[in-house]
Task: structure prediction
Amino acid sequence: MKKTLLFAVLAGVMAICISSCKKEPQDGPKETYTIEFRQDMNVALVGTAVKFTDLSLGATSRTWKFQDGTPATSTDAEVSVVFGSFGQKNCSLEVTFPDKSTQKLPQILTNQEVELLLEQPSCTDTKGYRDKAMLELLYATGIRVSELISLDVLDLNLSEGFVTCRGKDKNRNIPIYSTAVKALSEYIEFIRPQMIAVPTETALFVNISGERMSRQGFWKIIKLYQQKANIKKTITPHTLRHSFAAHLVENGADLRSVQEMLGHSDISTTQIYVNMSHS
Result:
């Protein structure tokens, strides 16, 4: 059964735990409203529909739906949907979540496809070493891309073999396998000092300008190596997260441990990987 939430928005401003609608300044009598979705929901964004209605213009409405193959397919996506050409006041926002029982299972890579993808960065230059370390860490830990690019050097403890992800409510320590430790050690010791713009830079992963890597920058990197590996599946940063979790469960990992590593607040969210191992 689909779940629908309806919110009244006065003067185009709303702030709730799962979404927000804000008015953007604009010349003329019309205004643009931006609806933002963040991670605080235990439901995938794919199939979620947004209906924005301007009550001051005879209930003029516009609907937007998250589809497969867009950056909005991950549950931790930060997505903005912009609606323009509406009146100045009195609008409503209706969010319809898809029926969980009919949702498709997330796409994952096989073990062979993961190996092929991780083999693509060529450790012959700074970019190759950096990219190798990023991909190895992402698959080794299943962290979100937002967590990956937010890491600082001090969040790594390579001697003990774990990384600390710092969340809003609590931190979690996630173990790292030896291949990823090696890739990270080489990057930090020999490559990162050549790439950072200033010695005081704290970011673990930096771009070619020597500043913290962006979400968009990493998105381009993973697409590049998907093409090089000639993998036909659509790969997003979240594909590696799904693959990490599914492979752990498939190999007998305790579901509660997987939940803690992924940072899921509700184990029902992690349960999907059990369903995938049985499919």
